[in-house]
């Protein structure tokens, strides 16, 4: 006796159906079993408004710092220390977005 008690209908084009059959066949699973595995593997998309705004504010401030240093370099007054700082700021922005992504917001980064 099957443990599954619910049924749903998924509408798809012929091309999508062939893609489903090809992928489920490659995994050596029925279409239903393959879809259930993909569903179990899928991470939920969480929308974190405040965390996202905080990262965007940080990115905005870091971008202003980096642009100021770029203006110095373009005018010939830039230093190696400023360049190092700009690279560090950019790395901080990337790290903030990666941290947000690890928290469950996959569209970050």
What does this structure look like?
The structure is a single chain. By secondary structure, this protein is an all-alpha fold. It is elongated, with a radius of gyration of 24 Å. The protein contains four helices and no strands.
Unreliable segments of 5+ consecutive residues: none
Strand content: under 5%
* Structural classification: mainly alpha
Mean pLDDT across every amino acid position: 84
Fraction of helical residues: 55-70%
Order of helices and strands: HHHH
What does the overall shape look like? elongated
Q: How many β strands by DSSP?
A: 0
Q: Main β-sheet, in a few words?
A: none
Any idea what the radius of gyration is?
24 Å
How many angstroms separate the termini?
45 Å
* Count of DSSP-assigned helices: 4
Topology, element by element:
Blueprint: H1 14-26, H2 31-41, H3 49-74, H4 80-102
Helix pairs in contact: 1-2, 3-4
Index terms:
109 residues, 67% helix, 0% strand, elongated
Quick summary of this structure?
This protein has 109 residues and is mainly alpha-helical.
């Amino acid at each position: 006796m099957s443990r599954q008690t619910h049924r749903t209908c998924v509408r798809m084009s012929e091309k999508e159906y062939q893609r489903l059959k090809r992928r489920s066949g490659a995994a050596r699973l029925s279409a239903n079993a393959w879809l259930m595995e993909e569903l179990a593997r899928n991470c939920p998309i969480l929308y974190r408004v405040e965390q996202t705004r905080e990262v965007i504010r940080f990115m905005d401030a870091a971008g202003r710092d980096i642009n100021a240093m770029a203006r110095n370099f373009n005018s010939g007054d830039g230093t190696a220390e400023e360049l190092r700082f700009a690279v560090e700021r950019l790395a901080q922005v990337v790290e903030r977005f990666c941290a947000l992504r690890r928290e469950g917001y996959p569209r970050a980064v």
